[in-house]
Amino acid sequence: MEAKETCPSLLSQCIKATASTIAHGGCNYLQDVLELPFDLLETLVMELSPLALHALHEILQGNYSEEPVARDDSNTRKRGRYGIFDQAWERLFKKRWNEEFKREQINSGIPDWHQLYCEKHLNECFEQAIETALLPTFSGGIYELTVSDKIMMTISHDQKFTDDWKRLSYHCRRFGPHARYLRLQNVLCVQEMAELLIGCKLERLTFIRIIAQNQVDGACMLINQNRQTLHCVQFIRCQLHPGSMNQVYDSICTEGSTHGLQILNFISSRFFETTPPGLLSLLSSGRDFKSVCFRDTKLQQASAEAIFQTLLQSSCELHSFEMSDNYISTWLSDMSQNSNNFSSLPEPAICLNSISVLNLRSNNLDQNDAGDLCFLLQKMPNLTSLDLSDNTLTDEGIRYLIPFFVWAFGKVKPLSDLSLESCSITDKGFDELLKHCLPVFRESLSKLSLSDNRLGSTVAENMAKLMGESLVKELKIEDISLGESGFEKLRLHLPKQISVSHINISKNRGKNEAAIFISEMISRAPHLVSINAAFNIMPPESFTVIFNALDMHFKERGKLELLDLTNNPQLFISETTSQITKFQHRGNPVVIFSRRPAHFQIMLHDDDP
Predict the structure, then answer these.
(1) Dist. CA 93–CA 540, nearest whole Å
(2) Parallel, antiparallel, or unpaired: how do β-strands 584-585 and 588-589 relate?
(3) N or C: where does the chain have the smaller number of CB atoms within 10 Å of the terminal CB?
(4) What residues contact 173, with CB distance under 8 A and at least 6 apart?
């Protein structure tokens, strides 16, 4: 017997009709809609499209514009109605951007889903409009850019929308006032866009590929309009010509005054002046800076010294400072000589005293910089995270830094995160580091990265000692030339229980010994969450070793979430490898692997020293 179709109720028909009317602006009684009984309003709100919900939400916010709603507000009626809208926006955000929804849940304390939806939608409109604006055939202005029917369908839930609604300008006016973060490519950084976004209260702005003067003008106009609320500005892949930074400085504060920026980032951008006066003025006038970043800006020694000296003489309590991927070898020694061995630094220098995260990765620093670096680092009592990777410090540089490491691991707020990847360290440098520092970092060091250093198999015993006698939670020893003998020694000296939760042993050509080591790690590390063992040339027989270890681990309710075995093509030749897919964590496979075996000649090449 065929199932009878259920006739829609009168209530459901009324709800849908009202929702459609609101969506298309035909309802002149939105205020009355908000006065509906709570259960009816809740049912209606959950049926609304984003465009209709946005219209109703603005009316609700207007009712309480002079009395902002807090999450713990005692006005039950007000809180209840806001709660309905929060739930509706959360549902719509999750439906449209599920992955971003998960990240927002993790990163945000109490997310404002309406605000997040508006800014995410507007940024998506910008990305799509850029594709049109960059076409050689397009010669119009900002007001002629439109969004796709797909986006319109997403926010209106049907096809009844006008051409005016498709214009980017419409979306700027409707959703812009509620956005707090915008990313603008160069073609959108113009005066017309700034005019469309008048009335916004932006807190974060990212400018991408600003090159021309009219784009600098547009960016500065946007900064100026939001100077009271703006706390983060980023420049990505921009070319900042002479005078550009003076404009940026003038747009955010008047001469002699201070500004409220907390985060200032320059990423893969270029300054066409050695020491841009506008940049130095911007840095010196910032009292609220928490994070400053110069990544891949191709700074030279003179620029680095000027920037650093400016920050040292400021009164900002900087928490994070990054100067990475630049050409600043010897800048510390030059600054030391010019400053009479740092004697001119304020005592205590507020900026140095507050820094907790320092990133000096890939700056062409070498052993000759290590002595001055050691002196400077010891003026940072709150430093907890240090990245010196991709600098050719060598064993000699590590020896110069040992006094700092001993001090840093033993201070009140100890160094807990240290990255020394690709620093040309050998087994001698590692052994000396461990000899002096292991007694003091037993309980303080949480993350250590030594990847891409030719440590060799001889460090295995000391590496096992490190894993057993410290509380390191995250250990990266990728591509340190352990080889089969290194994994064997590491396994033989591994203590019965270790505290590691994340370990990267990839690119070490461990073959079957790597598989045996993995099985031992799984059984001896009760808090193990992830292992990266890619590129270890494991043979087919390693599969059984790993499978048995995983089988036992999950029978005992283990916590492993990820085992990366990619690029070990011989490992999964057997037809029985499909069995490994049964190991899952929250519905996701634990083991990542390559199914397709590589050609025999390629395998030989992979193991060719």
Answers:
(1) 45
(2) antiparallel
(3) N
(4) 196
